[in-house]
Amino acid sequence: MLALSSPLAVGIYSQNNLIKTYESSESSSESLPKIFDDILRAYDVGALFYTNGPGSFMSIKVSYVFLKTLSIALKIPLLACDGFAFNANSPIKSLGSQWFFKEKEGIVLKENPKNEAARFTLPLTLDKSLFESENEPLYILPAV
Question: Rounded to two decimals, what is the model's pTM?
C-alpha cells in the first residue's frame, strides 16, 4: 500500500504479481475502511505490505494504525519499506521547500532545486525482499 501522497494506492498481489489496484484521492482515514471492506470481502489476505515513509505525516500515521490493527485482528504479518522503492528513488516532498532524499548515510532533508516529485507507482511484481518486519512509521521531521 502506498499512502505517502495522493492518490492513495492499494495493490492486490497473487504469487507476487499485481492483479488489482485500488486508488483514492480521499484522505486515508476516509478511503482505507472502504477499500479494505471491498478487499476483505473478495480476497483471503495473507500479509500486509506498506510504505512507512517518508511523506505525509498524517497519512502515514493513519495507515500504520489501520494496518497494524488489521494485522493483529487477522493474525497476519505487517511488513514495511520506505517509499523510495516506489518512486524510482526520487525526492519526496516534505514541508515548505524541504524534500526527503535517500542517500548513503540514510534519509536526509534538504532543498530540491528541481522542486518536482515523481509519482509513486505500485510495481507489477512485488519484491518482498524490500520489506521488513520493523514496520513503524518513519518520522524523520524534527519536533517543532
Answer: 0.90
Q: 117 exposed, middle or buried (CB, 10 Å; 0-12, 13-18, 19+)?
A: middle
49: cell is 505490505
Question: Which residues fall within 8 angstroms of residue 37, CB to CB, at 6 or more apart?
Answer: none
Q: For strand 92-93 and strand 78-81, is the pairing parallel, antiparallel, or unpaired? A: unpaired
Left (φ > 0), alpha (ψ -120 to 50) or beta: where does 95 sit? beta
Q: Please report which helix (H) or strand (E) contains residue 38, including its range.
A: helix 28-42
Q: Identify the sign of the CA torsion 58, 63, 64, 70.
A: positive
Tens of pLDDT along 96-130? 888 999 999 899 888 887 777 788 999 999 999 99
Cell triple for 138: 518513519
Q: Is the dihedral of CA 135, 119, 127, 3 positive or negative?
A: positive
Residue 56 Cα to chain centre, angstroms: 10
Residues found in the chain? 144
Helix, coil or strand: residue 5: coil
CATH match of 8-86+120-130 with 3.30.420.40: yes
